[in-house]
Specification:
This protein has 74 residues and is an all-alpha fold. The chain has helices at 2-18, 24-31, 37-73. It has three helices and no strands.
């Protein structure tokens, strides 16, 4: 059970490394440039901004889970 939780956490932490996300306007502007370092920076920024809502929702879900588990054991 613990190994499964650790595996899920590792996969969720590594998932942004495999994602390639861009809006269509950013893609059009960045593809026209010869230097791809700006495109990589934009991708990284989008991924970092995308992670925080998931962390927030996960924290709230964990808090609710813990509070309900505590109520059931009492």
């Amino acid at each position: 059970m613990m190994n499964k939780k650790v595996l899920i956490i590792i996969v969720l932490l590594l998932l942004p490394l495999f994602a390639e996300a861009q809006c269509s306007m950013c893609r059009a502007v960045l593809e026209s440039e010869a230097d791809q370092s700006a495109a990589k920076g934009i991708n990284d920024g989008i991924l970092y901004l995308m992670v925080f809502p998931y962390i927030l929702i996960g924290g709230i879900g964990y808090y609710i889970y813990r509070s309900r588990k505590k109520d059931q054991s009492s």
